[in-house]
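Changelog-adjacent note: as of this version, every example in the card shows the full chain rather than a window. The one below runs 157 residues end to end.
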Amino acid sequence: MLASLDGIALRAGVGNATLYRNFPVRDDLLLAVMQTSIDAAVAAAQELARSCGPREALAEWLAQLTWQLRIWHDLPYCLATARSDPRSSMNSGTSPLITQTAAMLQAAQSAGDAVASVAADEVFELITALSWGVDRFGDDEPAARRRVRLATAGLFT
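Full-length structure tokens:
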């Protein structure tokens, strides 16, 4: 269940006007909480792209991203909901994740390691759905990696 912004302000010990001034809508607050994790994930993906072949880098990125997105209960739901609202700040905030996915997917496609007919936004939506499953089924990291391998098998040539 999602907490109201007024409830969050009360728990944080700040006035609701202060919270609303800095975070007019829930997505703004959620994005601020996630920003460090997004930046770290992108940096890790860029390191994977430098240190691994395109197929291995993409496969590892998808496993790591799934694991990262499952951290906060209902985050995958929030991301999926935001994708249907073009005005949501979550879309611009998570765009670096999609951009990184696109770069790694393109490298794998260029190397002949991934099917050409798949788009990065489709892959990101799949990973979002997988992260929901990882959270709901209580997967540990090895189980999550297996779930990602199974679900993305058709992505790779």
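Structural remarks: The chain is about 75% helix and 0% strand.
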